[in-house]
Design a protein that fits this description.
alpha/beta; 6 strands
Length: 139
């Protein structure tokens, strides 16, 4: 794995994987910049291609907005779907809604099972990717 092809935050997970460890939580891959979350966060530059193999067998949630270039989102999702990830989902932060693509190793069909996130999942991810700072909230 070439460190130059890893997104920001990827090296730490790759180093863990090399010594037989893995993150305990869902890995967030952000296409919208840094996220203030306790989960491991990978920040990907939408204009770059990356080596995603450090995410093999991990649960992954890609975070984007509806105005994120659809071709970029599609490229990242296709690259991640090519891996054997434990789960893969897309969260649209500005819409506060998401789609499941792989759940427990089972790939969702375009119109099939597991495609839309249920109410419990949406509640679990509520607020994820919303950029709020103290100045904005207090203004």
């Amino acid at each position: 794995m070439n460190p130059k092809t890893l997104p920001y935050g990827g090296r730490e997970i790759a180093d863990l994987r090399r010594v037989g460890k893995r993150p305990a939580d869902l890995v967030l891959v952000s296409l919208i910049g840094p996220l203030r979350e306790v989960n491991p966060v990978i920040v990907a530059n939408p204009s770059r291609a990356y080596d995603w193999t450090f995410l093999v067998d991990l649960p992954v949630l890609v975070v984007a907005n509806t105005d994120t270039d659809k071709s970029v989102v599609r490229r990242v999702l296709e690259a991640l779907k090519a891996l054997p990830t434990a789960s893969l989902a897309l969260w649209l932060a500005d819409r506060q809604d998401g789609r499941n693509l792989i759940v427990e190793g089972v790939k969702a069909c375009p119109r099939g099972l597991l495609r839309y996130m249920g109410a419990n999942e949406r509640r679990q991810y509520a607020g994820l990717g919303l950029q709020q700072d103290a100045e904005t909230v207090c203004a």
